[in-house]
Design a protein that fits this description.
Strand order of the largest sheet of chain A: 1-4-5-8
Number of strands of chain A: 10
Largest interface: A-B, 123 and 123 residues
CATH class of the largest domain in chain A: Mainly Alpha
Structural class of chain A: alpha+beta
Strand content of chain A: 5-15%
Largest sheet of chain A: 4 strands, mixed
Order of helices and strands of chain A: HHHHHHHHEEEEEEEEHEEHHHHHHH
Distance between the termini of chain A: 72 Å
Oligomer: homotetramer
Radius of gyration of chain A: 26 Å
Helix content of chain A: 40-55%
CATH architecture of the largest domain in chain A: Up-down Bundle
CATH topology of the largest domain in chain A: Butyryl-CoA Dehydrogenase, subunit A, domain 3
Amino acid sequence: MSSQQKNEFSEKLMISADGQLKASQKIPQIARPFVSEKALKYLDIVEKFVEEECIPADAVFSQQIGDSVKQRFSGHPAIIEDLKKRARELGLWNMFLPRNHFKEGAGFSNLEYGLMAEYLGKSRTASEATNCAAPDTGNMEVLAKYGTQAQKDKWLKPLLEGHIRSAFLMTEPDVASSDATNITLDITREGNEYVLNGSKWWSSGAGDPRCQIYITMGKTDKNNPSPYKQQSVVLVPADTPGITIHRMLGVFGYDDAPHGHGHIFFKNVRVPLDHMVLGEGRGFEIIQGRLGPGRIHHAMRSIGAAEKALELFVARLNDPRKKAFGKLLNEHGVMIERIAKSRVEIDSARLSVLNAAITIDTKDAKFALKEIAEAKILVPTMALKVIDRAIQAYGGAGVSQDTPLANMYAQGRTMRIVDGPDEVHLLQLGRNENKRGKFLLDRLAWQRKKSEEMAAKHGMQLRDVLQLDRVMSEKSKL
Amino acid sequence: MSSQQKNEFSEKLMISADGQLKASQKIPQIARPFVSEKALKYLDIVEKFVEEECIPADAVFSQQIGDSVKQRFSGHPAIIEDLKKRARELGLWNMFLPRNHFKEGAGFSNLEYGLMAEYLGKSRTASEATNCAAPDTGNMEVLAKYGTQAQKDKWLKPLLEGHIRSAFLMTEPDVASSDATNITLDITREGNEYVLNGSKWWSSGAGDPRCQIYITMGKTDKNNPSPYKQQSVVLVPADTPGITIHRMLGVFGYDDAPHGHGHIFFKNVRVPLDHMVLGEGRGFEIIQGRLGPGRIHHAMRSIGAAEKALELFVARLNDPRKKAFGKLLNEHGVMIERIAKSRVEIDSARLSVLNAAITIDTKDAKFALKEIAEAKILVPTMALKVIDRAIQAYGGAGVSQDTPLANMYAQGRTMRIVDGPDEVHLLQLGRNENKRGKFLLDRLAWQRKKSEEMAAKHGMQLRDVLQLDRVMSEKSKL
Amino acid sequence: MSSQQKNEFSEKLMISADGQLKASQKIPQIARPFVSEKALKYLDIVEKFVEEECIPADAVFSQQIGDSVKQRFSGHPAIIEDLKKRARELGLWNMFLPRNHFKEGAGFSNLEYGLMAEYLGKSRTASEATNCAAPDTGNMEVLAKYGTQAQKDKWLKPLLEGHIRSAFLMTEPDVASSDATNITLDITREGNEYVLNGSKWWSSGAGDPRCQIYITMGKTDKNNPSPYKQQSVVLVPADTPGITIHRMLGVFGYDDAPHGHGHIFFKNVRVPLDHMVLGEGRGFEIIQGRLGPGRIHHAMRSIGAAEKALELFVARLNDPRKKAFGKLLNEHGVMIERIAKSRVEIDSARLSVLNAAITIDTKDAKFALKEIAEAKILVPTMALKVIDRAIQAYGGAGVSQDTPLANMYAQGRTMRIVDGPDEVHLLQLGRNENKRGKFLLDRLAWQRKKSEEMAAKHGMQLRDVLQLDRVMSEKSKL
Amino acid sequence: MSSQQKNEFSEKLMISADGQLKASQKIPQIARPFVSEKALKYLDIVEKFVEEECIPADAVFSQQIGDSVKQRFSGHPAIIEDLKKRARELGLWNMFLPRNHFKEGAGFSNLEYGLMAEYLGKSRTASEATNCAAPDTGNMEVLAKYGTQAQKDKWLKPLLEGHIRSAFLMTEPDVASSDATNITLDITREGNEYVLNGSKWWSSGAGDPRCQIYITMGKTDKNNPSPYKQQSVVLVPADTPGITIHRMLGVFGYDDAPHGHGHIFFKNVRVPLDHMVLGEGRGFEIIQGRLGPGRIHHAMRSIGAAEKALELFVARLNDPRKKAFGKLLNEHGVMIERIAKSRVEIDSARLSVLNAAITIDTKDAKFALKEIAEAKILVPTMALKVIDRAIQAYGGAGVSQDTPLANMYAQGRTMRIVDGPDEVHLLQLGRNENKRGKFLLDRLAWQRKKSEEMAAKHGMQLRDVLQLDRVMSEKSKL
């Protein structure tokens, strides 16, 4: 077979594999009806911005953070402000706020922003550069949705401008936080103040000197008979007396500075009554509303990380210096198969997230719980597999600072834990599926009876018997 | 927490888990824009027909086939004609022929039929009952697309009516058939006849006494310099002298009677010249066109099989007689987690198939090769996992004839082999993905250079260096 | 590198890969101290007998069974008697009976027989040929260990001679049999007889016309407060009035004739009082004693099946006719990697079984429960993986009757179910491991305290705190 | 069932699960014949030392290293000297040097030390405390085996005393180091000196200020026709002019200070001719001899890490504060199953390593290549699985510095890369296994012929044909 013929034949498969296809051209056919012309245009701008400005800035950012612990959590890498300026010029700002619920955002749907978030996930700096970084995104949603005008003026406005940052304080060190009813931080009303006592950890973003507001969940009514009415959410300025950042937590060996993950002590921390969000006992309601879109954002950024890992993997296979046993790595079938599996797994997981985003857009997050849970379960495990394969192809470079892979793996690993560990989501999904049990048993029994009637009409008596049917039909004799 | 409160909270997750939701209500949100009102209506009719008539008929069908080998491959279970009659009454006939290419079908798109095929896949008899059974479906497409009027009158018409059945003879026992250029059956022109010599196996459907036509691929020009121009497809009546069904092949221990899988010998089998399809040397073109939609059909039926297995699994967990260690199986968290994983995996795989179907509908199968390959790779492995979990929950009943599970597993296992084994599709996908190598290396080098410029602007020199970038930048110094 | 040099370098790896090494030379170094000279000699004879006589006989055996259901369960393939005669000549008879407990056997330890059983597992006929086939092996152990002299004379003697066969009737269709306390077959004493009523299934071996004795477990005392004292084991001649073989069960479409798996009804089946084994209420004791070595036998035969599958896999890769995409399969790295993984997994699983066998030999089965459970869990999943890879390499031939692979897969799949499904063994192992919980928590707390003392001695106070330690030390403050 | 009865029944499973069993009592039965009385005694001392002194010291060690990069790679945690002093008192020193090859060690076999290494692997400090830390262990073996008396006096003696540390410089950044023939560091003889130019990375241990000697592999004869004769090993004092530690590499964010992993530049580094080890061109021979036991040490330490992770997992499940959804984690079956799987996988992998160690002891490392490769492939993947499960059970604490789990994961991940990535070992094992191809094909053909003879003797002709046999028998007709 001549090489020309070979090309003709395989050309057909090339379509979306061509590196030069733009982001807007790679949207899965099934999702296209949901994407506006405007979003198509901005999606390509996002891709260009990420590839041409953010990814190159990542290395500069890493180095500007510095070496000593003190330095890393007190400075602010200058490059990030360059990027923010550029992003605003390009119109890439606050794209995460869905147009059907918020007037403050850039006017995209959850699906459209989801498509963009994939590209943001390829770079360490891109989300912050476009003011789309967690946990600010969820916090801005909370403030926009539930905040009083005064609360909005004071905190939402500077957040929307990217002038300050924020943290969401929910997780606690000494309880099983996967079950949010377990939280214990005490919020007691004393006169015209709330007094907070307790501790929080995994307070992400609390390390950044620009983080000025802690949106804090605690219990105002721990004896309320409903376990979902005991919690409240209070706005606590970061510099309120009584707050100590006890220490910063690592993720594997990374400190994620300057952002960071704080372990924070509250000792008689006092805030005015008007710092309560929505009202006492409505904390659960607030976190419920906050979680859906945030999980989609996380998931789409993870898809982006997986795509980035796959790109690095493919590049490695074609690196002319890395011949092993006389062959370039791309001649090793084992490697090619891993590339292919990664492609299949990424594409399939992406569809799951896009479907969840569309369900949120179409029917609201509370009717998309199954779809969100599925994406939440599926994506991190997929991303870890893809990233791990790339690490293996890089060998020593893969676990070191010379590629972003090890860091992406560490981030990805936390995704199986944050916003509820896999097990909790699986348990809920499974129990829900299990509710079909009675219906299914009844239907099987009905089908069995019909089957016997059909057999009788053909002059036969059935010999083998579906286990379940027998159980049911015997039961019905009782 | 009162039980009432518990319900309120988890109710939200119930939406699509309620057994009473109809098929049309369960379509993933992302696929809805592609489904017509008519298709929604017929989809619900399909579901009803399958659940209320076909599944009950399955047990009757199995028993009517009989016991001895001879009996099993010579009769025709009467129940199937009952079902066909009923299906035609309901308007469920030839739904597989896509409306944008064929006027002969029921007027649905590939996506719409795909949604229906899922339900057909839950029953052993449903596909044949609606005249949507492989390999007739693909064979009818070939005849409709490439046949002469005479060929259509003779073979397509009775196939469309469900009066006869057909087989597609491609695979051969003594070559690596995953590479179709390897086939060897000889087709030599002698006067006004073609003479065929060789052997074929896995000729599915050849066991049925109603199978009257073999669409046969062989080589008319084995010395053609293009390995894709050597093959031709010829129509061979099943009763042509020189044809022997040497034996029937089993799948695990199943003979799949009366359909079956033949091992067939051709010894000087003669057919007139007008039995050639499309023209000599155009065999590859024909099979290329045949494969895309067929893979989608297989995949969607496998999704249906997986859903059926999951239903049986859930039913088992709720079987009041099956208490192990003092608990119903549905109280065992391990089982609940498997249910949940199955739900996630099925739903995600379905989206992959639906996206492929939509890509075929929108852009044609030849632009959907990647999407088809992904679904082809993803679905069988998923289905096997789900079915295997259900088997394990049933124990002895799961491997026996008392559930359809073991049979579904055996069928599912062949799906990793037919139409090209997983490895071939992975190899093609992987090689295709690998073509991005040069582009990605260039982009990484460009990003590296930009990174250095950015650092310089900030008065820094970069310390750590992306492995690949270094290689490339050092190379550029040469 | 010259080809000569290449060989020198890789020669070192060849040692146990050389096809000509004998069985006795392939015993893992770690197991050698436990194997006598006599066993080494007989192990090689077993291998030779299996490879040169039994494997060639397998195809003849399959064909001699016949085609119709009736024929398959009424005849006795003549070839099996040829093999039995030859086996006795070679001294290969009843090797399974361990020398330290039984005088009736060939004088080997459980380990030594285990090594032999691996080779028996490579052929369908070898176990019966050497009178080492389940369930006769376990049944003979029961009779030898617990039988009266009269029981031994009547049943053990002809079993040891291979003149009759036997079945063990424990599993029941309508309860969760994985929990043996659930069985319900009623045994009521009436005068000088026991009267049995109920049903059993998966009565393996009951299909063989030579099967003359059913060792049957039922309940004589269902109200006994101890759930382990309610059961008794009774010897029931197969031709006792009131017994009906309702039907034979399939395993993935295989009927396993003539052996088979019976679904049997007992209706007022009467046996004399002296047919009780060991005494009323001692059924649990009997099955406990029966299970350990039997699981080792199953596991070692599965190891042999996996080795056979791997041999077929390797052979396929070197089949000169099976070139795919211009290369022999053995040039495809993906295939080579699967070969290697299979080798690693088989060898590791074998060590687990051998260790369990040695633990039984050294300390008795009741002190080897953990080791037996580990082998029971590990081996079937391993074997299925290896066999499945081989099936995939064979494609269509792999799922059909043209290789033993699909049948081996079906057999292997039941191994995850029989003698307790994986889940039950995992649950027991896990609960047992979990008993270390308190000890481990206490030790962690102790280590934490010691850690603080050490830090104090160095003038430091510890900053980070092991989660668990903190919990414990805080608890200790209470 | 009364709780008493329950205990009686499950007691049997408790044997090795009881936390109080000593190390010597937990040795798998199969390995016992290989362990001397002395080793049993010292094994228990090792366990006690690790649990009571090293593990408590780990937290102190971590904190003594300090915070800033400079500090971390220039100091020497004082606690380590406390431990070393104590270890020597206990006679726990240099246990790694096998008695059959070296007189300098503590007189144990590879197996015996392997059993001890498992316990050392549970603590971060234990290996160094007993002078059994890599890479010193392999380096001491090299010097003891191949060094001149002068080399031994200068370097081996202080290493054996624990006064200095060492590094082995093989891996290079710009080649595929998994293939050692690719290394490029140039060693040119000039007069009475060797001059070294090039770079090395992953020079583990080079960060420690006490590291005084680099055992360095390079090429003295890059044009030698044998790719295995081009390399030499030279002793290079760490303070030789021309050496720069360019930077230290991270492993998932960990710097592994003070040990560390150096990226080192060599620019005209000069050493006297007598610093050559064994002779020019003998570098391959040296690394071959070095790798076997080292892989066993790594593997057994990884087993220990996995056991430690499992202990932490079990402890977590019993932590009274961590109730999720109303249950202690140990009541969640999903968790119990993971505990059980971990137990099975650890125990099986350990047997594989022990068998490899025994094979080295009995037959020498060069006859144990297969066994070593199997352990090398099996253990890291197993350990990562076990550790990852524990991480998931701990949630946030699992990825942070509050447990050793994340660090153990990072270390474990490198084990799939160092000393050759998994893929290289699988490729070698697979190719080796594949050499049986011709033998197996021939045997299958022979068996097929025998099968036909047997059939003929029974008056039959075989119908179904083993695929491979047919190929072979047809070939034989040619």
